[in-house]
Design brief:
Layout lengths: L1 H22 L9 H14 L5 H16 L4 H15 L5 H17 L3 H14 L4 H43 L1
């Protein structure tokens, strides 16, 4: 009885891991369009005579919302905003935050190599930063998953071609 429960638990874990592998789920949060719109309103209001610090905070919130958006055009806009503002950033903490958000944006847009480089730069600044470590693992997992799927597709194509060739030879005889 106990052995059966242990086996059942192991099978359940295996099925869960296979399911999560093919679902493509990651731990990076998504952002809805209404949050992006709210952040855009904040930036517009902050532009009307607010302090530079408040404007900067609102722009960072908007950048966060854009790179976490489900809409690819929002992600690209967030990447462009962050790239533009990165060079003018003096604070190492703000630079780290912007590089991290850029890494998220590149991850969301499928540019895993650029995302990984930015995460590694973040970890040079703050080696124990959990968010950056988590993103680095997420990127590695995604690259591995894409490689496995690519190998599976290639193997299927080879199998179909080999089957077609075998069928053609069988017809000739």
């Amino acid at each position: 009885m106990i052995l059966a429960r242990k086996m059942e638990a192991k099978i359940g874990k295996l099925l869960d891991s296979v399911g999560s592998f093919f679902s493509g789920a990651d731990e990076i949060p998504w952002c809805d369009g209404d949050i992006v719109a709210g952040c855009e309103r904040e930036v517009a209001e902050a532009g009307k005579g607010s302090s530079e610090e408040l404007k900067s905070d609102c722009i960072m919130r908007l950048s966060w919302a854009l790179v976490h958006s489900r809409r690819p055009e929002d992600v690209q806009r967030g990447i462009a905003m962050l790239e533009t503002s990165l060079d003018g950033t003096a604070s190492p903490l703000q630079k780290r935050e912007k590089m991290y958000l850029l890494a998220v944006g590149y991850y969301r847009s499928g540019d895993y190599s650029r995302s990984r480089l930015l995460v590694e730069r973040c970890l040079e600044i703050a080696p124990e930063w959990r968010q950056a470590r988590s993103l680095k693992k997420t990127i590695a997992d995604r690259v591995t998953k894409d490689g496995v799927i690519g190998i599976g597709i290639a193997a299927t194509v080879v199998g179909v071609v080999a089957g077609g060739i075998a069928a053609a030879f069988a017809r000739k005889k």
